[in-house]
Amino acid sequence: MPFLSLKFNLQKRVKLAQGLWMLYWLAVIVGIILFSLGIFFKIELRKRSEIMDNNESHLVPNLLILVGMLSCGLNAFGGKLCHDSLDPQKFSKMKPMLRPYMLLCCGFNVLLLLLVLLSFLMQFAVYLTLAEGLKNAIRFYKDTDTPGRCFMKRTLDMTQIEFRCCGNNNFRDWFEVQWISNRYLDMSNDVVKDRVLSNVEGKYLMDSVPFSCCNPGSPRPCIQHHLTNNSAHYDYDHRTEELNIWNRGCRQAVFSYYSGIMNSIGALLIFTIVLEVRLRPHCRSQSVTCVLKGTELDSQTTVTYRNHFALPFFFWNFILFPLRLIAVSMQQKRKQWREIHILLVEKQELL
Amino acid sequence: MALLVVKFDLKKRVKLAQTVWFMYWFAVLAGILVLSLGLFFKIELRKRSELMDNNESHFLPNVLIAMGLIACGINAFGGKVCYDSLDPTKFAKWKPMLKTFLVFCVGFNALLIVTSLLCFIMRIPLQFTLAEGLKNGMKYYKDTDTPGRCYMKRTLDLMQMEFRCCGNDNYRDWFEIQWVSNRYLDFSAKEVKDRIGSNVDGQYLMDGVPFSCCNPSSPRPCIQYQMTNNSAHYSYDHYTEELNVWRRGCRDALLSYYGGIMNTIGALVLLVTMLEVTISCLLTVFIQSIHIVLQNCFLSEISDTLKRTANLSLSLFCFLSVSLSSTHTYTHTHTVMGTNRQLLVFPSDLMSRLM
């Protein structure tokens, strides 16, 4: 089924193959970017899995890694296909693989669409996991002697410092839990006994927050304890004080970070889909017309093909030089030098 | 050495030109690397210039940026010369410039060695700048209402949290200065009046530290105030307590950070120097091969210049490597002396061949 109704003469076909080859390499690079984004996202989720109850879903990063690898493979193969499409001997070898390759590409595009949807929808799951996880984290803050939870205090402190937040919804969440371990409470003290008896569950509650809630941008040294008691501190009004401790809740802060990552992933995936969809009809028309006009190709076309590819190869050498160091395409440069050598030997200039 | 014994036929010359061209492009990348390292170091110094009294020397990063740019220029030019070298019409255009280009290359290599040496030496002035700057930083911690110093508190707090350090040498530095502003002290309270009256300068001193000194890994909530008073806190002994606040001083922490950056940059610049020297040697050999074939009497002129420049670079190398070995670790001297040995053999053989 031809997508374009233009008549493809040789010149146009060569130019099309050239452009397609570059687009395929761009798509391979995008595939590598997707792969590395998937790994980055997985690492970020793993880093903070403690405040998400070790319960977060790794579906999106795993799929992203898979999609990245598939994209590299499919587009590299497609690039090779386009590269060989002007050479009738090589192309006749590739011809039977064309149809299954096109089907595979369609399936891959569907997978990409699914992943875009997932990356936008899974944000809800992340939000709910975070809410639950942070609530438990605040509860287990004091359990630095319980195995399995002994690093909860450090994780939560580092999270509050890094994301500039305090508590789950706001700093008052700390007033509702006992965040000082009983090991450090003098139970014979009257003040302590009063506090413990003043609530049903026998918890030592106070209107204080941990040091990690402190805002370094505050002009006065941090007030952590007796936050709601104006008379406990000189020239202090807790209703108007804004810079003392962080006002934002950690659920909001951490969620906006993760949702930013997932939105970028979604945007990049949409770009990839657009790129892939554009590549398919061009390559298909290219290969179809080549099949139809296969008999017209002769030795002249191979020379033209080589000349046309010499310039873009040189261009790619400049731009993608570090990649070419690794890639097999160094062979192309050696071919050029060999040609110069052949030319010189033939003309016997420097002997 | 085998390269010089064998006659340079066309195939070998093409291969040599190819190799040198390739290495020149690699050297352009190395030049870009040096440039970006210089930029990175400049940014890092600028970020924390407040803690260094806005007084730090930007000499080293500026030199690195300049060297990076020159490296890119010289190597790109060298690559172009190599690329055109097999075409006699194009090469005739470059022939007169080759002598000066080689001299430039050798001078540039010497400059690179000096730069890498600077990277290791500039640590010492930085140490003094940091010590002075941090002392003043702590003094101005409370002055959040004085224009020009109102962000000192925030900078110092963020730095202590980031580098996991407290005070200049250790946390006791905070006991010796007043870090709570008078605006937040109730002068009618007896306790405040006692403290102020208890020392000559009339400062409100206390055995407390700011919250940024707290260690999040401590199993108990942070004890910031009354740190030397064991009875003020339940089950607390300030002699044995290790995890409560950061124990390291910020001067040590910052110095080791910047020292690490400078060491890495110095090592990388040394590697780039070795690459450049190798390229210069290969270029010399290549030019020799071309001139042998063309049978130009320009040859003797080049050989004289080469002799002079090779001797100069050799002596520079010897001197600088000896001085380097006296200031840095054995791993670096090992690589430098290895290249030195190569350079010793190359030119002498080259000259004997030509005469």
Automatic annotation (TrEMBL), chain A:
What are the BP-aspect GO terms? cell adhesion; visual perception
**Transmembrane intervals:** 20-41, 62-81, 101-130, 255-275, 309-328
Coiled-coil zones: none
Entry's localization field: Membrane
What's its membrane topology?
Multi-pass membrane protein
A single GO cellular-component term from the record reads: plasma membrane
InterPro entries in the record, alphabetically? Peripherin/rom-1 (IPR000830), Peripherin/rom-1_CS (IPR018498), Peripherin_LEL (IPR042026), Tetraspanin/Peripherin (IPR018499), Tetraspanin_EC2_sf (IPR008952)
What keywords were assigned to this record?
A: Cell adhesion, Disulfide bond, Glycoprotein, Membrane, Transmembrane, Transmembrane helix
Instruction: Decide whether keyword Flavoprotein is in the record.
Output: no
* Superkingdom, taxonomy of origin: Eukaryota
Q: Which family does it belong to?
A: Belongs to the PRPH2/ROM1 family.
Q: What is this protein called?
A: Peripherin-2
Organism the protein comes from: Xiphophorus couchianus
Cite the source lineage: Eukaryota, Metazoa, Chordata, Craniata, Vertebrata
Automatic annotation (TrEMBL), chain B:
| Signal peptide positions on this chain | none
Pfam families, sorted: Tetraspanin (PF00335)
Q: For this chain's UniProt record, which GO biological process terms are given?
A: cell adhesion; visual perception
Subcellular location per UniProt equals: Membrane
CDD domains per the UniProt record, alphabetical: peripherin_like_LEL
The record's keywords, sorted A to Z, are: Cell adhesion, Disulfide bond, Glycoprotein, Membrane, Transmembrane, Transmembrane helix
| Superkingdom classification of source | Eukaryota
Q: Which GO terms describe its cellular component?
A: plasma membrane
Q: Which PROSITE patterns does this entry report, sorted A to Z? A: RDS_ROM1
Does the keyword Glycoprotein belong to this entry? yes
How does the UniProt record describe the way this protein sits in the membrane? Multi-pass membrane protein
Where are the bilayer-spanning segments? 20-41, 62-81, 101-121
Primary location class? membrane
Which family does this protein fall into?
Belongs to the PRPH2/ROM1 family.
**Protein name per its UniProtKB record:** Peripherin-2
